[in-house]
Write a structure and sequence with these properties.
With 247 residues, the protein is of the alpha/beta class. It folds into 2 domains: 88 residues, Ribosomal protein L30/S12 (60s Ribosomal Protein L30, Chain: A), CATH 3.30.1330.30; 142 residues, SPOUT methyltransferase, trefoil knot domain (Alpha/beta knot). The protein is built from 9 helices and 10 strands. It has a 6-stranded parallel sheet. Strand 6, helix 7 and strand 7 form a beta-alpha-beta unit.
Length: 247
Amino acid sequence: MTMAVPPGDLVAAFGAVHGNASLVLLEGLHPWKHAHRFGAIVLLAATHDRRRLQRLVDRLAPDLSLETVQDVDETVWQQLAPRDTTSPLLAVAERREWSLDDVRSNGHVVVLDRPRHAGNVGAAIRAAAAANAAGVVTLGGVDPWTPAAVRGAAGLQFALPVVPLPEGSPVPDLGRPTVALDPKGAPLVAATTTATTWVFGTERDGLDERLLAACDAVASLPMRDGVSSLNLAVSVGVVLYLQETDG
């Protein structure tokens, strides 16, 4: 059980998350909920409005208890909470260090080439987790464990392997075909029954030509004439939901 921490120490403990690559800030009920459901080590949790939080838990996470969530007053909360936080719950968890070996299972894999927007990365991870993908790999770009990415994913970085690789890395060989998403590809209109690595380019510039050439095939999502692109996370969701989710 998480032990109660004196308010001053609690402020210091939450402040220590920033710049510590082994810790993750969980802003809100959903990241905290998913962290618990998928076996994360949650070190600290705090609320300034237990009644409101309990109502949310009763409605959205009745399988979980608030026993380890510490009450703080408004003054302490203002020191803990980022300016844009509206949820009555903040927590700190240990970051899960996934590797490519964790991804080597049946199922589709999402590779994001140099994604720039943390919210998009998080939303792509959320779609991948919901669609029962085998993992998400990023090749450079934003860290998929930043607070904004964790918010966008609702903490589902704990639910499936999420592996950040350095920019310039090749598409990892995961023992399955690789398909690049690019407007020049053939329209993707039917499910791919074979577990596949799906490779998506940046929001602005698309997929690096080196990576595009290294893929086994190129596919595109059919779009209405005059519409130039889809949001990255939307593209990931559409592709995965065209597939067999059980790999």
